[in-house]
Amino acid sequence: MLIPMEMTELVLSLCLMLAVYLIIIIVFFFARRKYKGGLIETVINLVICTVGFLFVADLSLFLGYQYGLSLAFTINVVFKIVAMVFLSVGGMKFFVK
Fold it and tell me: Which of 24, 65, 77, 94 is deepest in the core (most CB within 10 A)?
């Protein structure tokens, strides 16, 4: 499918954001290997899962070419909400401890 010229900038910026998410996930995977156990590993896992959900949310925007923009945007919003809920619930567990 041919991408319109005005969509090219949007697709490139989306690819850049996905690359940033992947770099963050890779860095935290190496950090998790270094800091095994305890509270730091729990925080690192929380960050990895949150960034993973945000990665899937932005990746879902590529579904717009196949299934329509409304479905792609709905999936994007759902996964961003899941990421924020995951981060807030995980953060609240630290305040409870």
Answer: 24
